[in-house]
Amino acid sequence: IFISRSYDATTHFETTCDDIKDIYRRMTGSEFDFAEMERKKQDIFGDAAE
């Protein structure tokens, strides 16, 4: 079980993202790579055919 280390009850986006990245790092042992989330040219996300 991975528990958030944050006790911040606010809805600040930055602190929420930091908390999520911290949990990911503790779960996997590596930093989250946002580059892997970038949309690739051949990816299909409901786009109309060109």
From TrEMBL:
InterPro entries registered for this protein in UniProt: FAD/NAD-bd_sf, GDP_dissociation_inhibitor
GO biological processes: small GTPase-mediated signal transduction
Gene3D superfamilies: FAD/NAD(P)-binding domain (3.50.50.60)
Highest taxon listed in the record's lineage: Eukaryota
GO MF annotations in UniProt: GDP-dissociation inhibitor activity; GTPase activator activity
Keyword set, alphabetical order: GTPase activation
Family, as annotated: Belongs to the Rab GDI family.
Protein name, per record: Rab GDP dissociation inhibitor
Organism from which the protein derives: Pleuronectes platessa
